[in-house]
UniProtKB/TrEMBL annotation:
Keywords: Iron, Methyltransferase, Oxidoreductase, Transferase. Residues 184-319 form the DinB-like domain. Residues 377-674 form the Sulfatase-modifying factor enzyme-like domain. Gene3D superfamilies: paralog of FGE (formylglycine-generating enzyme), Vaccinia Virus protein VP39. It comes from Exophiala xenobiotica. Pathway: Amino-acid biosynthesis; ergothioneine biosynthesis. It comes from the Eukaryota. GO terms for molecular function: methyltransferase activity. InterPro entries: CTDL_fold, DinB-like, EgtD_Methyltrsf_superfamily, MeTrfase_dom, SAM-dependent_MTases_sf, SUMF_dom, SUMF_sf. This is Sulfatase-modifying factor enzyme domain-containing protein. One of its GO terms (biological process) is methylation.
């Protein structure tokens, strides 16, 4: 806690470095208070330091007396020195110096007349300056408390730390998200919305098919407040008027933006940012109280409402980021250095191996989960309406590529087929190049899974959009390609392949998980046999422990305890590029092992299955239009998750996402599959 403006006595660079040391020892739930002088009016600053009672001068002269005390003799005579205070309006800082009024000789020092000893620099911070300071220090502004003239502020800051757990028993410890789950999500949300976008950019819409960015800052707490209020028959958090403008956003038809589902009215102007953030804090306090009181875990209706709010916020965190990626003003994550993309590309190229066809055996696959929307029965994990109910489908044998299509392979496709249009995730210095397109010319065979990358001349001038700025495409050739379904299905046809169905993707994921589990069980069996053998020799019998997991406080409505094993519903994070492990896609060409759910280098996986009601589908009572509003034949199912997807979503075996097939801004990729060749 530094309540004065001592930080202003550092250079701006040193101030950031100093505060960054605190960031290293703060956890996601910690905060720090920092005061900053924000007055940049030269006359006011000059008069403040050159005050009529000479209070500041007396303070400075005390420094000369203190120096004499340390030296043990009167080296600095007060009458030989003048105190000078000036304002540097170029760097917005006050400068104080001791000025020698005559030539001075002491046993230790000598000074010429007029020579200066710099005493103090006091940098003044505008809002832009302070925002830059927090960003460089790796801190996120939560609140700023100002004086009446709004030129001095005490800032409440949190560290820019995102650290989601990796194991289901941690990130899905109970069906209702815990306070720790919420705090991790809030930390991620604040880092993205408060430190990766300039304030003035919040009033813009990087994607014209969406609302202004500021809408999402109001939408998230409003949505949560609506559902908590309904679940508890309570009153809306003030101001209740936010319900009418922030309840639901827009996701119009790409072909005809005039066609759109029901949504909130769009006001002529949005409420002030500070008002929205204050509202957000009040809603967060409401959520915190419901959790810490235990009510969230004893009332399933409220628990479901909080789960809904949590996953809704998590999904819109990704929405906000993919919108921000299209902005020219996106900022890197606070406190992070820009990765060495050139070195990473060289490493990926050195490790590059051909993709491989894997035979996926025929199987019966469970899809979805059972979660009746009522208060009856044992504790269970919640699911959206498109996940319910669980059903089993028979999937035929097929073959699948080990990994998704890479940028390099897609670039080669565009070059060979003479296409000028690029995915929206790419850009070019040529102003005439369109943003995206799906034209398909010709075809090629990719029996080995190897498609050469584009020529250096074709790659020249093309870049991939990232939150760190534009990365030359030649440094991202081994990343998965990020494009619309229509663009990638054209590549699949050209390659004599196709994109898997929802059922095939689930079958593939199950096959990968079964193979991994088989490997683990073999290793574990050997270890247990060795341990049991040793213990048997000592007269002790030992068997493998039960795999059932009992969450604390989990109990059935009827009084019997509930057995919830999160590993039945969720996967381990392992080395997947999700949950902000990286802030960009990562190479997928370094191995020919078969990649499973949420393991496609940080992108969702397209399927060829249109979003449609399945057998037993019923719109959810809490949010009837969540899925049903998009049964228009234009959306396809996506599975897995991206680098910005939280573990509860990316690693839930039943979660379903979707996008319009021609929507260009999606964070989705695709892999090739094919029917099993008929042997002669």
């Amino acid at each position: 806690m530094t309540l004065g403006s001592s930080i202003g006595n550092f250079t701006r660079e040193s101030a950031a470095q100093f505060l960054a040391e605190f960031k290293k020892v703060l956890t996601a739930s910690d905060t720090i208070l920092v005061g900053l002088d924000g007055c940049q009016q030269p006359d006011r600053v000059y008069r403040a330091y050159n005050d009529t009672p000479k209070t500041t001068e007396k303070f400075y002269r005390n420094g000369l007396s203190h120096a004499n005390a340390i030296l043990g003799y009167e080296a600095f005579k007060q009458h030989e020195w003048q105190i000078e205070g000036l304002y540097d309006d170029k760097q917005n800082r006050h400068q104080a110096s001791y000025v020698a009024l005559t030539s001075i000789e002491t046993r230790d020092f000598s000074f010429e007349k007029g020579e200066k000893i710099r005493l103090e620099d006091a940098f003044k911070y505008s809002q832009v300056d302070s925002d830059r300071l927090w960003h460089e220090a790796g801190l996120v502004l939560q609140m700023a408390y100002g004086n009446k003239t709004n030129d001095y502020f005490v800032h409440l800051l949190s560290p820019a730390v995102i650290n989601f757990p990796t194991k289901p028993a941690e990130f899905a410890a109970s069906p209702v998200p815990t306070l720790n789950d919420w705090q991790q999500l809030w930390a991620a949300w604040d880092i993205v919305t408060k430190s990766m976008v300039p304030r003035e950019e919040l009033l813009n819409k990087p994607i014209k098919l969406r609302n202004d960015l500021i809408f999402y800052l109001g939408h998230i707490p409003t949505f949560a407040d609506i559902h908590v209020t309904k679940a508890t028959a309570g009153k809306p958090t003030h101001p209740g008027s936010y319900w009418s403008i922030f309840e639901r956003g827009i996701d119009p038809d790409v072909d005809n933006p005039e066609v759109c589902h029901d949504h909130s009215e769009i006001p002529d102007s949005w409420p002030p940012l500070e008002d929205i953030l204050n509202y957000q804090n009040r809603v967060r306090s409401r959520i915190t109280e419901k959790i810490t009181s235990g009510e969230a875990f004893s009332d399933r209706k409220l628990g479901r409402a909080l789960w809904l709010g949590y996953e809704h916020e998590a999904m819109h965190l990704e929405t906000f980021l993919y919108m921000l990626l299209q902005s020219e003003r996106v900022l890197p994550p606070a406190g992070q250095e820009v990765p060495d993309f050139k070195a990473l590309a060289a490493e990926a190229e050195a490790n590059r191996v051909p993709s491989k066809w894997h035979k996926i055996p025929a199987s019966n696959v469970k899809i979805g989960l059972d979660d009746p929307e009522n208060d009856l029965g044992l504790d269970r994990y919640f699911g959206w309406d498109n996940e319910r109910p669980a059903r089993t489908v028979a999937v035929k044998e097929f073959e699948a590529h080990s990994r998704p299509i890479s940028n390099g392979e897609y670039a080669r496709f565009l070059e060979v087929t003479h296409q000028d249009s690029l995915p929206a995730s790419w850009t070019t210095s040529a102003s005439s190049a369109p943003a995206n397109g799906t034209t398909n010319n010709g075809n090629a065979h990719a029996e080995t899974g190897v498609i050469e990358t584009a020529s250096p001349s074709w790659l020249e001038g093309k870049s991939v959009r990232t939150v760190y700025g534009l990365v030359p495409l030649k440094f991202a050739l081994d990343w998965p390609v990020m494009a619309s379904y229509d663009e990638l299905v054209a590549f699949a046809k050209w390659s004599d392949g196709r994109i898997p169905t929802l059922e095939e993707a689930r079958s593939l994921y199950k096959y990968v998980q079964d193979q991994q589990q088989s490997t683990v069980e073999k290793v574990t069996s050997k270890l247990i046999s060795a341990v049991n053998g040793h213990l048997s020799n000592e007269g002790v019998q030992e068997t493998p422990p039960s795999s059932h997991w009992y969450p604390s406080g989990a109990a059935a409505v009827n009084g019997s305890s509930a057995k919830l094993n999160p590993n039945d519903t969720f996967l381990d994070l392992d080395d997947r590029n999700i949950a902000f492990r990286h802030f960009h896609p990562t190479p997928v060409t370094g191995s020919d092992h078969l990649r499973g759910q949420a393991d496609l280098g940080g992108l969702w996986e397209w399927t060829s299955t249109p979003l449609a009601p399945h057998e037993g589908f019923k719109p959810m009572d809490l949010y009837p239009g969540y899925t049903a509003d998009f049964f228009d034949g234009k959306h396809n199912v996506c599975l897995g998750g991206s680098w910005a997807t939280v573990p509860r979503i990316a690693l839930r075996k039943s979660f379903v996402n979707w996008y319009q097939r021609n929507y260009p801004y999606v964070w989705c990729t695709a892999r090739l599959v094919r029917d099993v060749p008929v042997s002669n």
